[in-house]
TrEMBL record:
This protein's GO CC annotations: periplasmic space
Organism: Labrys okinawensis
KW Aminoacyl-tRNA synthetase (keyword) present: no
Keyword Signal attributed: yes
Protein name as catalogued: ABC transporter substrate-binding protein
Principal location class: periplasm
Family membership: Belongs to the bacterial solute-binding protein 1 family.
Localization of this protein: Periplasm
Pfam family, one: SBP_bac_8
Keyword set, alphabetical order: Periplasm, Signal, Transport
PANTHER family for the chain: ABC TRANSPORTER PERIPLASMIC-BINDING PROTEIN YCJN-RELATED (PTHR43649:SF34), ARABINOSE-BINDING PROTEIN-RELATED (PTHR43649)
Gene3D superfamilies: Periplasmic binding protein-like II
Length: 438
């Protein structure tokens, strides 16, 4: 399909997106409001800041779509990338000084830290939601505030347990445990066999937060209640810390300093047999001829259910935000619209090889989710994720608590013996109350 400047800029053409829907079995377009038309400013150019990819196909597809946009509009787009840990501070600096990238692919509820610095994307968000079956609620919550889109939900990066099947069986488990009690016994058995587990207790934006929130929620704990009152210092939280300490005793040494890349490296080096990660871990093994046997041995599964009795997981979420300081807001909105339309969005999801779970429900029909059994635990990430601000509202406080690693640090100081579980929970309560002033 050829896309020219006229197709992109006129409302009636709509990027010819509806014509491509049948390609992935999505069917006809959903009912929608008026399609916004954006005319890039004369001489416009854009800067986009995104996170460094763990699956190369993600970046390749993103850049290919960007190139198509430039060819259609003449707008040059520079795409920069930073490590996962550096995206948050870089975006915050741009917001505070009023210059820098036009668009940032941010994490979790970061957009709620500086909503007054962001362009209103409500017309675009409403149009896309109406056309493509609606946004997933969890992702939408991260990108909306007071009924307006302060960003566009982009993806949930699914997090699941990755393990060596032969090592789990050698430890005496023919099936992967479905509950936290059985999971602890598995980790003990793996350590005894010299093939231990390992989960990050360091300030890892993705894996560290995903693990810490699962520990808390699986035991019935929560940072705040529905009103935003801090409730982290609870019997349920202390029980989760004690459980985390027992797990930590089975881990490979040094996980308290792990960032998002470290568990990948440890698993691929054969130092651990079990961790939690995106599907990127599987593909990193597959593309290395020396790791052929390891790749064939990998299995994936969702986190076990804890005393709370239901699956409760945090998945890495990313949204696209547009700063008000952009000199070319029409060009930026045209770019975002282009990237979210069916041909580009499905190409990106496919290129990501199940790493990025769709923000809009219509794209759940993408065949990538059925392409490999390893993908299955990641396929519902957008649907099942629980926002990190649970059970209170998302906003400055929830964003601040996560950015300050309050929950991650609570577990780290306790499992390493720096504090008792009770003191760690009390410290987390004190730190959280600095943000939740109710």
């Amino acid at each position: 399909m050829t896309i020219n400047r006229r197709d992109l800029l006129t409302a009636s053409a709509g990027l010819a997106a509806a014509a491509g829907l049948g390609r992935f079995g999505i069917g006809p377009a959903f009912a929608q409001g008026a399609e916004p038309a954006y005319k890039p400013e004369e001489g416009a150019s854009l800067r986009v800041l995104r996170w460094t990819p763990f699956v190369q196909g993600d970046e390749d597809a993103w850049l290919a779509n960007t190139k198509k946009f430039t060819e259609a509009t003449g707008v040059q787009v520079r795409v920069d990338k930073e490590s996962w840990e550096d995206i948050r501070p870089k975006a915050a600096v741009a917001a505070n000084v009023g210059s820098g990238p036009d668009i940032v692919l941010c994490w979790f509820d970061d957009a709620h830290q500086y909503p007054d610095k962001l362009a209103d994307l409500t017309d675009l968000g409403t149009y896309l939601g109406g056309k493509y079956g609606g946004w997933y609620d969890g992702l939408k919550g991260y990108a909306t505030r007071e009924g307006k889109f302060i960003a566009l939900p982009l993806a949930a990066i699914g997090n699941a347990i990755c393990y060596r099947d032969s090592h789990v069986k050698a430890a005496g488990f023919n099936e992967f445990p479905k509950d936290t009690a059985g999971f602890l016994e598995l980790c003990k058995a793996l350590k005894a066999k010299g093939t231990p587990a390992g989960f990050p207790h360091g300030k890892a934006v993705g894996d560290g937060n995903n693990y810490a929130h699962w520990l808390l929620w699986s035991h019935g704990g929560k940072m705040v209640d529905e009103s935003g009152k801090v409730t982290i210092n609870s019997p349920e939280t202390i029980a989760s810390i004690k459980y985390a300490k027992s797990l930590y005793e089975t881990f490979i040494p040094g996980t308290e300093s792990w960032l998002d890349i470290n568990n990948n490296r440890a698993f691929l080096a054969g130092q651990v047999s079990l961790t939690a990660n995106g599907v990127s871990l599987y593909y990193a093994a597959k593309k290395d001829a020396k790791l052929k046997d390891l790749a064939a041995d990998i299995r994936t599964v969702n986190f076990p259910v804890g005393p709370v009795g239901q699956k409760v997981e945090l998945h890495q979420t990313t949204s696209a935000l547009l700063f008000k300081h952009s000199k070319y807001p029409e060009a930026a909105k045209a770019y975002l619209k282009f990237m979210y339309e069916e041909p580009q969005m499905n190409a990106w999801i496919s290129g990501s090889s199940a790493y990025c779970c769709q923000p809009l429900k219509a794209f759940a029909a993408n065949p990538v989710w059925k392409a490999d059994p390893i993908h299955e635990p990641y396929s519902h990430a957008s649907e099942t994720l629980r926002p990190n601000g649970y059970a209170g509202p998302l906003g400055y406080a929830s964003a601040g608590v996560m950015a300050d690693y309050v929950l991650v640090d609570m577990y780290a100081v306790a499992v390493t013996g720096q504090m008792s579980p009770e003191d760690a929970a009390a410290q987390a309560e004190k730190r959280a109350n600095r943000y939740y002033r109710v």
